[in-house]
Amino acid sequence: MHHDMGGKMVPFAGYEMPVQFEGINVEHETARLALGVFDVSHMGEFWVEGPDAFELVQRLTTNDVAALYEGKVQYTCFPNGKGGIVDDLLVYKFSDTKYLLVVNAANIDKDWAWVNANNTRGVKLTNASDATSQLAVQGPKALEAMQALTSETITDMEYYTFKVLEFAGVKNVLFSTTGYTGAGGCEIYFEHADAEKIYKAVLEAGKPFGIKPIGLAARDTLRLEMGFCLYGNDINDTTSPIEAGLGWITKFVENNPFTDRALLEKQKAEGVDKMLKAFELTDKGIPRQHYEICDAAGYTIGEVTSGTMSPMLKKGIGMGYVPKSHSKLGTEIFIKVRDKLVPAVIVKLPFYKG
Amino acid sequence: MNIPANLKYTKDHEWISVQGDEAVVGITEFAQKELGDIVFVEVETLDETLDAEETFGTIEAVKTVSDMFMPVGGTVIAFNETLVDVPETVNKDPYGEGWIIRIKMTDKSELDALLDAQAYKAIIEG
Questions:
Q1: Are A25 and B37 an interchain contact pair (Cβ–Cβ within 8 Å)?
Q2: Is B3 contained in some domain?
Q3: CATH number, domain A8-42+130-225
Q4: Are B16 and B42 in contact (CB under 8 A)?
């Protein structure tokens, strides 16, 4: 289908995905300021059901599942038992005995094995990844645009909530006010069989708002402008949530006995040696993944985990792990771009504030 | 695809326009399309004398970094300063306003090793 729309296709995590349509900068701006639709059907979906569903999800994830109510979504991660991260994910609460986990495409097999290995109480697990399609409709007026496709009110939905509704004539569509762009909008889950019908309806409803299909390349620049972590780049099996700045989803509250809690609680109390920080180049240049981060004397102190030219700010932005000594806002660091040290400064997230 | 007949080409998608002992070098329409939005062009070899196929600069799109190579040996005598602030000129007009460098050729006979428009077309059409 994307082929028909002039999409440039690339293999991604075993899927044929549209990486780019019209051009990354145009697509980026469209999603940021108008309306964009992303095919993110590669994402993985696991259902967790049964009397012990809550106990399992609470134990597997760092955030506090008890804080969820029916219809609420939560960003969280799976610690791996060694202080690293198996994956970051979204948890959807349908009821005390039914949750949906939405995981990264590249990690579906690893996550599925991890969840099953930890399922000590016989919770019913279903991997619906192959049967489920997902579209992300992102932009400041996304909800207003999508309202035409459903009789239920969606324009007043709070951030990170969901409803199951009839959408574009298709029943049982999962509609959540989530996304990976910081532009606002929603993500819509449905069965593969309805994909073409829903995609066409979304494009039609979005027409008055200037909707365009957006590729994965712009999805990456959009998320980086917000400082959202990308698994495999900014977080992985060896980085802890505390090091990654994900303390806000690591809840050391009562009745949250998650994997690695003691270890991570210790890290939080005592501090960590390296921290994921955001930086902007103060001179010309573009930071890229794996470029070295140096101090003023030219010594390597870290590595860029994600970097790009920000389409909105028109400057080089990135993230990387730096020692505590260089982690304070305003600290000058240097990025080694082709053997040249380009000055940069540690900044606060998000890079783009709208 | 626009491949002007009066230019010579490299398999790495540079073009060269010969003007006496000097020549202008840029990247082709095909190259700018493949790269997508060009956001940074860096040439730090001004006044240096380089051999054919040596790197004279770097061109960056949002997602990719590519080196640019000398089509023939020569001295880099000018860089298109427009590209410092408006790198997307390369996307808009790769054979005109989006030229990259001007060189003084060391040995014009090296031009014979380059591709003509037809041979270049055959390469990109695989």
A1: yes
A2: no
A3: 3.30.1360.120
A4: no
CA dihedral A12, A13, A17, A22 (to 10 degrees): -40
In chain A, residues under CATH classification 2.40.30.110 are 273-354
The total number of residues written for chain B in this structure:
126
pLDDT one-digit tens code per residue, A37-91: 999 999 999 999 999 999 999 999 999 999 999 999 999 999 999 999 999 999 9
Domain spanning A273-354: which CATH class is it, in words?
mainly beta
Distance CA A190, CA A202 (A): 13
Which two structure tokens, joined as six digits, stand for B87?
């790198």
Residue with tokens 């730090």: B44
Residue B2 lies in a domain: no
- Using CA coordinates, name the residue in chain B closest to A338: B58
Which position has the token pair 């979906």?
Answer: A45
- The whole domain housing B58 covers 9-125
Contacts of B86 in chain A (CB under 8 A): none
Question: What does chain A come to in residues?
Answer: 354
Query: Would you call A338 and B58 a contact, using CB atoms and an 8 Å cutoff?
Result: yes
Q: CA-based angle A154:A349:A27, to the nearest 5? A: 55
What is the C-alpha to C-alpha distance for residues A318 and A225, in angstroms, rounded to an integer?
Answer: 9
Subunit contact A284:B39, Cβ cutoff 8 A? no
Indicate the number of domains in chain B.
1
Q: Indicate which CATH number applies to the domain containing B83.
A: 2.40.50.100
In B85-114, the residues whose Cβ lies within 8 Å of chain A are: none
What tokens appear for A150 in the block? 């459903």
Residue A223 φ/ψ, nearest 5 degrees? -70, -35
* ipTM reported for the complex, 2 dp: 0.80
For A226-257, write each residue's pLDDT tens digit: 999 999 999 999 999 999 999 999 999 999 99
Residue B1 lies in a domain: no
Rounded Cα–Cα distance for residues A69 and A202 (Å): 29
- Does residue B120 form part of some domain? yes
* Cβ contact A311:A28 at 8 Å: yes
| Residues of A whose CB is below 8 A from B40 | 284-286, 309
Residue ranges, CATH 3.30.1360.120, chain A: 8-42+130-225
User: What SS3 class is residue B39?
Assistant: strand
Q: What is the pLDDT of residues A314-333, one digit of tens each?
A: 999 999 999 999 999 999 99
